[in-house]
Write a structure and sequence with these properties.
A hairpin with a 4-residue loop joins strand 7 and strand 8 (about 170-180). The chain has 15 helices and 17 strands. The termini are far apart. The protein is globular. Helix content is about 35%, strand content about 20%. Pfam families: AAA_21.
Length: about 475
């Protein structure tokens, strides 16, 4: 039966009332389908939150140049354009965060602290009987023999987790994991235990783990759900890019699993370009920033592995398989392409970063990059930054945390006041200890140019440069 169409203008409330009236009184047959659709919409809405695996904040104490506890907080001050809903009431998180500071202020130390935490979690039983790679603050006698402390708050599939541990080079001194399903606190474990009912269970855990294996890693091996969720965030969702030389200082240049601990390499780009859709996407990005690269080819290697290297590979987990190479072409005409290593340092850096960028945006990773400005023009830095802020590109709520000297990102604060949440500064105290503080801690209403204010030292985090005449006099002294 057809109903006549009403051509008169109706208000939105009256239209809604009529729809519900028709559903309930005129078309009862469709009532159940209406609720099916409604429940599907609610389910999709919830599923969007259930898919998120995000970092809320990171705290570290007594590690390298960090003496007192410092906190990097990725929570936004409200529901803002540059933030997303975490799925937990009242918690909106930042898509992008930048840490500024002078040389030797401790920016890289914050990244290394998170990297050390990640590797200790990842390596599990591999570390049993081996010294842990923590390094306390050495400029104070009171701290050099005390444990370093690491802690994260995470939201994984709609559940809040608090996890952390403290450790010396010899042993794990404390460890804890709390989960908050439906907002209610659940103590998964505290090490050493304080609950007499679980003493026997914790004794078994301690016996299996020894002094320097985390209970989190142990529980993840046996498939405990809360343990596995947090472990997987460290192992699969957290990606950290930091200079290899800094990793070597802490013994991290080559993981004991036989994989490079750093989440960047030329080989990443090569592997991604083997997928035609991804290669096309990379070419579009390169074209959009005017690198004049028209074509990319993956060239299979024909290198023969020497007998001695095959022998080493048979006794270790290190992969000596020859790597394929990328060829970049600057014209569509037939010509010889260039190896990636023949391109400029900036081209190499951009392409190396672009692959983890695309992966992070596709999978919703937390990507941490030390010295983003290295070898890149300011406009490229802003381009990479804005990829994470673009809601059409960043549908999986990936997070980007960078350290940088490039001040061009600060110019965004002038255009968007809430952007202050995204900016942090590192500085050194007189005793050599690192401080970390957000731009939002300052009153900036009277400042017209945030970028210029930073350059002139208004917020700290810039090096003090003395009088050049003093240097000239010293050089000319005989």
């Amino acid at each position: 039966m057809r109903y006549p169409t009403n051509t008169t203008t109706e208000t939105i409330p009256s239209k809604i009332n009529k729809i519900f009236f028709n559903i309930i009184f005129i078309k009862p047959f469709f009532l159940k389908y209406f609720f099916f659709i409604l429940f599907d919409i609610i389910g999709l809405f919830k599923q969007n939150f259930k898919d998120k695996r995000v970092l809320v904040n990171f705290r570290v104490k007594n590690f390298m140049s960090i003496k007192e506890s410092i906190l990097l907080d990725l929570r936004a001050s409200g529901q803002q354009a540059h933030a997303f809903n975490s799925g937990i009431s009242g918690t909106h998180l930042l898509n992008t965060t930048a840490i500024y500071g002078a040389n030797a202020s401790g920016k890289t130390t914050i990244v290394l602290a998170l990297k050390i935490m990640q590797e200790i979690v990842r390596e599990g039983f591999i570390t049993r009987g081996i010294k842990l790679r923590v390094e306390p603050f050495l400029l104070d006698k009171k701290t050099k023999d005390k444990p370093s402390e690491f802690e994260v708050n995470l939201i994984i599939k709609g559940t809040h987790y608090n996890y952390g541990f403290s450790a010396t080079r010899e042993k794990i001194t404390k460890e804890w994991l709390y989960a908050y399903p439906n907002g209610e606190e659940k103590e998964c474990f505290i090490r050493p235990g304080s609950n007499s009912e679980s003493d026997q269970k914790q004794e078994r855990w301690q016996e299996m783990a020894g002094d320097n294996v985390l209970w989190l890693s142990l529980g993840a091996v046996f498939g405990a759900s809360y343990f596995r969720s947090v472990f997987d965030w460290f192992d699969k969702n957290l990606k950290i890019i930091v200079d290899e030389s800094r990793l070597e200082h802490l013994g991290l240049s080559l993981s004991r699993f036989g994989r490079f601990s750093n989440d960047i390499s030329n080989n990443n780009a090569t592997e991604m370009c083997k997928d035609e859709k991804t290669k096309t996407l990379i070419l579009k990005y390169l074209e959009s920033v005017d690198f004049s690269i028209k074509k990319i080819e993956v060239i299979p290697t024909t290198e023969v592995i020497p007998e001695e290297r095959r022998s080493i590979r048979s006794r270790t987990t290190i992969n000596f398989r020859p790597r394929d190479k990328l060829k970049l072409f600057h014209s569509n005409e037939h010509q010889e392409g260039f190896d990636l290593q023949q391109e400029s340092a900036g081209t190499q850096r951009f392409l190396e970063l672009l692959t983890p960028w695309i992966t992070a945006l596709r999978k919703g990773h937390t990507l941490v990059v030390d010295e983003l400005n290295e070898k890149l023009h300011s406009r490229l830095i802003r381009f990479l930054w804005e990829m994470f802020q673009n809601k059409d590109l960043n549908k999986k709520h990936a997070q980007l945390v960078v350290t940088t000297h490039d001040t061009s990102l600060l110019s965004l604060v002038n255009d968007l006041e809430p952007f202050k949440d995204c900016i942090w500064f590192c500085a050194k105290k007189d005793n050599g200890a690192t401080l970390l503080f957000p731009l939002s801690a300052y009153e900036t209403d009277s400042i017209k140019d945030i970028e210029e204010a930073y350059r002139t030292g208004r917020f700290g985090g810039v090096p003090f440069v003395g009088d050049i005449d003093f240097i000239i006099d010293a050089l000319l002294e005989k």
